[in-house]
Specification:
By secondary structure, the protein is α+β, with helices and mostly antiparallel strands. Helices cover 57% and strands 8% of the residues.
Length: 221
């Protein structure tokens, strides 16, 4: 059987891309990471593989592209279903995992971006929305080790990349997540003990340095 070709197009600070990194590592899939420019120049390969949105991440499997991070996670889980399943086998539990991942993308991640791309009242509003979203997720996590129970799954892989941004967000908006959301912070530390996560997430201080550069470029500070 010919060896599969798996390529991930992304940028190192993208929490959407980190999701895919973690899933591939968790499944033990050999893949090539191709870095796009941090300031999107839309490389010819990216324009070819994602002509509609021209955004990362894009997974290229044997020459065929799959776009949008949550869709990519489900694709990875279906293609390599025999290795470390991410989604539950129960249909209802699968629907709930998809619901919470969708909640992150619609509620939590957009407010995080607003925090580091704003200041003053707008930033305060974004911070309140971000914290509200995280506390809802804390309620869903409860006393479980992971969102799905005893093993890391779809919801964990979808959310944990945001933890690499916690330091930058808290420093920009003057809050400490350890005090505000201790359950979630402890969960993130638990996830970081897994090699698939620790090798996929960048240094939080490197993220913060990038945020400072972007804020300067946009004249925010």
């Amino acid at each position: 059987m010919a060896e599969e070709e798996v390529v991930l197009l992304s940028v190192w600070p993208s929490y959407y891309g980190m999701r895919v990194n973690i899933a591939l590592e968790e499944k033990g899939i050999n893949y090539e990471f191709k870095e796009e420019p941090e300031v999107p120049g839309k490389s010819p390969l990216l324009r070819q593989m994602n002509p509609i949105h021209k955004k990362v991440p894009v997974l290229i499997h044997n020459g065929r592209p799959i776009c949008e991070s949550l869709i990519i996670l489900e694709y990875i889980d279906e293609i390599w279903s025999h290795k470390s399943p991410l989604l539950p086998s129960n249909p209802y539990q699968r629907s709930q995992a998809r619901f919470w991942a969708d909640y992150m993308d619609k509620k939590v991640f957009p407010s995080a971006r607003r925090i580091w791309m704003s200041k003053g009242e707008e930033q305060e509003s974004a911070k309140e929305e971000f914290m509200e979203g995280l506390k809802v997720l804390e309620g869903e996590l409860g006393e479980k080790s992971y969102f799905g129970g005893e093993t890391m799954g779809f919801i964990d892989v979808s959310l944990v990349p945001m933890s690499s941004w916690f330091y930058a967000l808290g420093t920009c908006a003057n809050f400490r997540l350890e005090a505000e959301c201790p359950i979630l912070v402890n969960w993130a530390k638990r996830c970081m003990q897994k090699e698939s996560v620790s090798k996929s997430l960048p240094d939080p201080h490197k993220i913060y340095d990038l945020v400072l550069q972007i804020r300067k470029w946009h004249g925010i500070d």
